[in-house]
Amino acid sequence: MNLSSPTKDDYMGLYSIMFWTLTLIGVVKYVGIALNADDHGEGGTFAMYSLLCRHADIGILPSKKVYLEEEPLLRNQSAAARRPSWLGKFFERSITARRALLFMSILGMCMLIGDGILTPAISVLSAIQGLRGPFPSVRNSVVEALSAVILIGLFLLQKYGTSKVSFLFSPIMAAWTFTTPIIGLYSIVHYYPGIFKAISPHYIVRFFLRNKKEGWRMLGGTVLCITGAEAMFADLGHFSKKGIQIAFLSSIYPSLVLTYAGQTAYLINNVNDFSDGFYKFVPRPVYWPMFIIATLAAIVASQSLISATFSVIKQSVVLDYFPRVKVVHTSQHKEGEVYSPETNYILMVLCVSVVLGFGAGNAIGNAFGVVVIMVMLITTVMLTLVMIIIWRTPPVLVALYFVPFVVMEGSYVSAVFTKIPEGGWLPFAVSIILAMVMFGWYYGRQRKTEYEIANKVTVERLGELLAKPEVQRVPGLCFFYSNIQDGLTPIVGHYIKNMSSLHAVTVFVTLRYLLVAKVDERERVLVARLGPDGVYGCTVQYGYADSLSGGDLTAQVTGSLRRHFGTAEAGAEEAARLEAARTNGVVHVRGKMRFYVGEDAGWFDKVMLGFYEFLHGICRSALPALGTPLQQRVEIGMLYKV
């Protein structure tokens, strides 16, 4: 609270702001609109970007573009529904607009990761500060140390998966959701029964007329009332849309409205207690039970942001916009429940550093406010694009959505930007670092794809190489991984020339990441003969919510090949050759390229490709991500000259 001497009217205006923020952003925007912009059950900014890319040719990387006539999940749409809208055509024509859209998606993801750092820190720290109510002598350093211990324990439990402890979440959140509004009702009756007069928007107008610039600056604090809304959308893969809508409308929303009303009623009668409004409005007889419930609820809230961070990292890795990190599926039944060890421990270090570095001051709250509203503004813009490009919403309805929310969230953004020197710089620093990593990776992958397309090995060229007398066909089954759709990677020619051999049965596998959440099993594996005996092409298609394992992949590909051979005599011979090759041993060959940046290359290429080489060197290999056995992996190196 920046007001030097707050009054009853100030608190009434602040409650009115929080009520309408919760109602418009929480209920109307997220529950009513955003949850419908899912991509096959997945939510968040990258899911919306995926959705947009599937309905218009606006992807950036050539290997990641989705062409509507090839996309199996869109074949049944009518011609009118598949035809790009005027805005879709604009994005298709403008590379600048497509890059801006990609950058917006990246920034939204980076800000959500920043939320994953700050939410556990501020939630646990705020809850543990309740110790200082009954024991004012407890120092801030003790509160910070205890908060750090709780956070470390929470992150160490992540490897077991949320399903192992999720049975505790419902009773904890139920206790929090139903006890805080009861206390709120008690405060309303005891301190100020007329608090709900503040629902009238004229209290907001009077608040700003009275406080002017100071009132505008205070928006940076009131935005915290809607924290968690974006995580609710990003966590859509963990829960059903209907379940989230019912839970929010029936319990969370009324609980927050009553709790904030109770706190405001208390503050109207205790105008100088704004520094710790929650614990001071809790009656003494129930103080310790509420302290325990608040601490447990803070841990559950932290878990939701950590899980959302794992989800968006997995989406980005699978879509090849982020360096490969290990992603583990921790549930047999929930595909969206994932865990990333590297991400987990980096988040743990950053969260603990925030707690110990920022402490109990206002700086951590300022940083939190910047993250919350920036992600929401990005979601508003992307939802508008979804309305125009995909839903074909009438312009009047689009304007009725876009204008109010941009004005509201834009006002919040302008207010929280004043907090950047006071701690708000932290999420920007984290987001800039992450955006640099993502852009460096994206640029390197783009240049790699361009080189491979320009120097690909055609099927005709493959036949010429295999026809040479010095090239031998050795026993065994080889899965040779290629990155490009039309043709083979240059490493194939490099391998045959230098090894003078190729396995008796060789399957050139292209892993095609579609910009969808899940691919139908019938469309998963596509096989075809490539001309030379025993040489086949295979495209394995899957989305960012699918998972592949090495054993299953081998079985799926060989099964598809047997079905492709048919029951004719020639097919039986090919099936027998495949089985014999599999008996002789299976090997998975992957090319490991490096860029050779010549002296004539520009400084931008030298810097960006050097950074990409660094990222490529420290990230995980693609084959371990597929779960292929270690003894079956072979890597072939090649220099790509730029």
TrEMBL record:
<feature type="transmembrane region" description="Helical">
    <location>
        <begin position="100"/>
        <end position="122"/>
    </location>
</feature>
<feature type="transmembrane region" description="Helical">
    <location>
        <begin position="215"/>
        <end position="234"/>
    </location>
</feature>
<feature type="transmembrane region" description="Helical">
    <location>
        <begin position="286"/>
        <end position="306"/>
    </location>
</feature>
<feature type="transmembrane region" description="Helical">
    <location>
        <begin position="246"/>
        <end position="266"/>
    </location>
</feature>
<keyword id="KW-0633">Potassium transport</keyword>
<keyword id="KW-0812">Transmembrane</keyword>
<protein>
    <recommendedName>
        <fullName>Potassium transporter</fullName>
    </recommendedName>
</protein>
<keyword id="KW-1133">Transmembrane helix</keyword>
<dbReference type="GO" id="GO:0016020">
    <property type="term" value="C:membrane"/>
</dbReference>
<dbReference type="InterPro" id="IPR053952">
    <property type="entry name" value="K_trans_C"/>
</dbReference>
<feature type="transmembrane region" description="Helical">
    <location>
        <begin position="424"/>
        <end position="443"/>
    </location>
</feature>
<feature type="transmembrane region" description="Helical">
    <location>
        <begin position="398"/>
        <end position="418"/>
    </location>
</feature>
<feature type="domain" description="K+ potassium transporter integral membrane">
    <location>
        <begin position="5"/>
        <end position="462"/>
    </location>
</feature>
<dbReference type="Pfam" id="PF22776">
    <property type="entry name" value="K_trans_C"/>
</dbReference>
<feature type="transmembrane region" description="Helical">
    <location>
        <begin position="12"/>
        <end position="31"/>
    </location>
</feature>
<dbReference type="GO" id="GO:0015079">
    <property type="term" value="F:potassium ion transmembrane transporter activity"/>
</dbReference>
<dbReference type="InterPro" id="IPR003855">
    <property type="entry name" value="K+_transporter"/>
</dbReference>
<comment type="similarity">
    <text>Belongs to the HAK/KUP transporter (TC 2.A.72.3) family.</text>
</comment>
<feature type="transmembrane region" description="Helical">
    <location>
        <begin position="172"/>
        <end position="195"/>
    </location>
</feature>
<keyword id="KW-0472">Membrane</keyword>
<feature type="transmembrane region" description="Helical">
    <location>
        <begin position="142"/>
        <end position="160"/>
    </location>
</feature>
<feature type="transmembrane region" description="Helical">
    <location>
        <begin position="345"/>
        <end position="364"/>
    </location>
</feature>
<dbReference type="InterPro" id="IPR053951">
    <property type="entry name" value="K_trans_N"/>
</dbReference>
<feature type="domain" description="K+ potassium transporter C-terminal">
    <location>
        <begin position="475"/>
        <end position="641"/>
    </location>
</feature>
<comment type="function">
    <text>Potassium transporter.</text>
</comment>
<dbReference type="Pfam" id="PF02705">
    <property type="entry name" value="K_trans"/>
</dbReference>
<keyword id="KW-0406">Ion transport</keyword>
<keyword id="KW-0813">Transport</keyword>
<keyword id="KW-0630">Potassium</keyword>
<feature type="transmembrane region" description="Helical">
    <location>
        <begin position="370"/>
        <end position="391"/>
    </location>
</feature>
